[in-house]
Amino acid sequence: MQRNRTTSRRWAGAVLATAAAIAVVLGPTSATAAPTTADEAADLVAQTGQELTQLDEQVHQAELTVTELQRVAADARAVAEAAEAEVARYEPQLIAIAHTGYTSGPTSGVAAFLTSDSAEDFVQQMTTLDMIAAHTDSLLVTVSAAREQAAAAQSQAQAAAAEAEAALATLEQQQAEVQARVDQYEADFTRLSAQERAAVTVSLAGPVLDVPTSLAPPPSEAAGAVVAAALAQVGDPYVWGASGPNGFDCSGLTQFAYAAAGVSLPHSSRAQAGMGVAVSRGELQPGDVVYFYSPVSHVGIYIGNGQMVHARTFGQPVAVTSVDMRGYAGARRIL
């Protein structure tokens, strides 16, 4: 039963950890004095845009948490079903033991002595009785353990399922709150002048560069597939929470591009920034994932020559820009 206790502790730990992680506090927007100048308004919009990228990442982390809770619940249900099947497997033997006890009555050492033809026969009968008793005891212990495991697994499954349902409800609420902030941000953004909108966009997402006509050679065929898939999406709209094929957010674009090389990435910039191996700015190669800010809330795909392609920010399409834009924090080589 040591394995059962270990499994229970592992499930309990997973449930507690993921339940804690889902408690993403978006909170109300901090109180800020109303802007009195156009520059202040532009700064406020830029600040809000940066906050939105962080909230976007929080929601993606919550989505991963919900998925993990659902996996824990499914695993627990599978173990419960296996344990219940194990109990059912022993049921015929339990019925046979009960039937024998009812029809034949208990067999004792005295009965064996009285029915034995010799001392040797007596010893043989006693040995047989001991074996039967040991088998019966072992079977009952096994069945009892299986029943305990089934009950524990069932309890774990119910707890994990309840946590998953609660986490999903919290996530849906958070998504609605972020969407409301996105709508407000886009409304504020459109009220800026063209020059102010351009300044805010460059501040948040770097300057737009032309798609290069020639690219640095990729280090591998897979890396080339990632770069080609990302560049093919240039001009597609930024869509919060989307991973293609017609709209993307930042980690959705990297996820989509890596899928072209047969690599599955989580839809989370923070999670992607923890994959593969770290590479320095001077070691960047086409196909590397570059990430921004602390905590990480934005990613792009390096394409060579100091450039990257990324799903930029709200209201702005996928574009090529300098990898050295504000907030650069590091890079990972996943392939």
UniProtKB/TrEMBL annotation:
Entry GO MF terms: cysteine-type peptidase activity
Secretion signal, residue range per the UniProt entry: 1-33
Protein name per Swiss-Prot or TrEMBL: Cell wall-associated hydrolase, NlpC family
Domain of life: Bacteria
Species this protein is from: Trujillonella endophytica
Family: Belongs to the peptidase C40 family.
Domain NlpC/P60, chain residue ranges per copy: 220-335
InterPro entries in the record: NLP_P60_dom, Papain-like_cys_pep_sf, Peptidase_C40
Coiled coil (residue ranges): 45-86, 143-195
Gene Ontology terms: biological process: proteolysis
